[in-house]
Fold this sequence. Notes:
Number of domains: 1
Shape: globular
Bound molecules: adenosine-5'-triphosphate
CATH architecture: 3-Layer(aba) Sandwich
Structural class: alpha/beta
Oligomer: single chain
Strand content: 15-25%
Distance between the termini: 43 Å
Radius of gyration: 18 Å
CATH topology: Rossmann fold
Largest sheet: 6 strands, mixed
Order of helices and strands: EEEHEEHEHHHHEHEHEEHH
Helix content: 25-40%
Low-confidence stretches: none
CATH superfamily: P-loop containing nucleotide triphosphate hydrolases
CATH class: Alpha Beta
Mean pLDDT: 89
Strand order of the largest sheet: 6-7-8-3-9-10
Amino acid sequence: MSAPLLVGERVSRHFGGLRAVDNVDFTLHDGQILGLIGPNGAGKTTLFSVAAGSLRPTSGRVLLAGTPVSGRSAARSVHLGICRTHQIVRPFARLTVLDNVLVGLHYGRPPGPRSGLLRGGLLRRDHRRRDPRDAAMEILDFIGLADRATRLPGELTLAGRKRLEVARALATGPRVLLLDEVVAGLNPVEASRFVDLIRQIRDRGTAIIMIEHVMHAVMSLSDHIIVLDHGRKIAEGTPELVAADPLVIEAYLGRSDA
Ligand SMILES: Nc1ncnc2c1ncn2[C@@H]1O[C@H](COP(=O)(O)OP(=O)(O)OP(=O)(O)O)[C@@H](O)[C@H]1O
């Protein structure tokens, strides 16, 4: 297998006495989807924030293609090629859908041959030499929002706002996309379309880590799953292996003798 793309080495993040993330290792390879699951309060979002550069680890580090990325800033991580979405979507409410994507293009990773979008063929030409609006429209077309380009985010459905959140992140040209509960809250038809979309993003060259409470989505998409509970990694492996692990079942359902 190729050299790992993103590696977490003994990552811990404490809040006072609370070990929100406790000594967690993880590895993401190019072309992979890594699922991050666990009960409420397990530490998933905290680990995401450390990986995205917005939260400094108490100890340990995160490396992107061998370069340490943790503990600096989210803006630096975006420039290096890690971008996250948020569980509560955060578009610029007064900008159109198109302008929201343009912001991502403007502040994102400088385009180059290793950019996920470029490698995957979504932005076929170097968008520095193109009208950025064409590049933004190409992303909106891919994400399924081209016909909403001139609308405001508030006019979109929840599924539309979640697509916009992903479009904004994709516009930054990430090598690693961190998806925080993008399927949760969608109806079954929308959820199944979103699963297809996530698979297409991966197939076009962007590796993904996803936090997801919708089990069928994370189980069908992930190549590898990590399970957190009380900040610690309690299991990892293929979806089948993890789903059958007694520790995982206990973490979700409580002890059978309780
Ligand atoms: N900024 C903070 N200050 C203090 N405690 C925090 C902070 N952020 C998270 N925590 C605590 O850290 C623990 C892990 O929280 P985190 O949000 O990472 O869990 P999670 O697995 O993402 O949960 P959920 O599935 O409910 O979103 C929780 O006990 C939470 O209350």
